[in-house]
Please model this.
Amino acid sequence: MVESNTRIYLDYNASAPILPQAAQGVAHVLEMAGNPSSIHRDGRGVRALLDEARDAVGHFVNVPPTSITFTSGGTEANTTAVLGSLHAGLVSSVLCSASEHPSVLEHVDPMNRIHVKENGVVDLDHLEARLKTLDGPALVCVMFANNETGVLQPIQDVSELTHKYDGLVLCDSVQGPGKVGFDATLIGADFVTLSAHKIGGPPGVGALVNLCGAELRPVLVGGGQEKKQRSGTENSPGIVGFGAAAQAMVGEAFEEELSDMQKRFEAALQEAVPRVRIVGLESNRLPNTTCIVKEGVPADQQVIKLDLAGISVSAGSACSSGKVAESHVLKAMGLNKGVTKSAIRVSFGRETKWNELERFVEVWASL
Ligand code: PLP
Model:
């Protein structure tokens, strides 16, 4: 058993702990003088590190480094793909699944939100019906994996369908890489977005991968950095930390370990709390994410009680103010208010020990 004064961190989908290699990369660049746009030796030194980081991130998700634009995170990468393709006239409308992250969802007219089925998977029939009614090409945004439930989406099918109607596909892949094997070239999407702090890199840095080569209208204009796709002096420490995390993750075969742990964890939950509801249980899910419901106990109360017991988890629906709203993801799956207001998300990682999950089960069962 875990000592009662040791903290247990089960909130990897919010932010994974920074990897030592990434922390070292950040610290190293912070000590360097030099703007990567300067042509003197100091500037060139930083530029060389950014180039290495771009190669490492490209290698991690199997894309050419030239397709990568570094951004301030997943939110900016999604925003750039959505607004950039609309403003460049590449598409005339934007559709998204109803369970997207708010950084996509909030750009999209409620009429253009595609249903997800009860199992959390996007409804391809609804997507096709909506695509048929449109006059011009659409940007279709479907995430690789949901941050609250871990449900994986059929991105290849979404891409095939969208391309049949001459549209473009944005796949928010912030959750996925580092948890399951991920090859951006196999999913057929035109744009893929990533975030460093979900893979053990620093927060405040991410990437937009442009695989179709279409020119987006930049959201940030100014100095023309990142091949004019994203102006502003590069976050060199962040980008180098991102590259170091990506490099550390390449070829790491821990998907199976996570999956074994998840099976064991969910079996233990089922034993401790008979008829426990695990959201998306019947769907393909990330092997590190389990969304569970304790009806009658509001999610924020569960999170607080677990916190007092030394365990960090999130209410799936927590917003930045820390308040817990009804989860739009669970609502989109047709779950009732009793469920949507009392679901929490447990997300673990490769540093998680079995006895930590065991302790979680003990505390949660007693709430
Ligand atoms: N997309 C998904 C699926 C996420 O889970 C998150 C963060 O929680 C984001 C986008 C936003 O990423 P960032 O925090 O880097 O802005």
Notes: Residues 73-75, 101, 103, 143, 147, 172, 174-175, 195, 206 surround pyridoxal-5'-phosphate (CB under 6 Å). The chain has a mean pLDDT of 95.
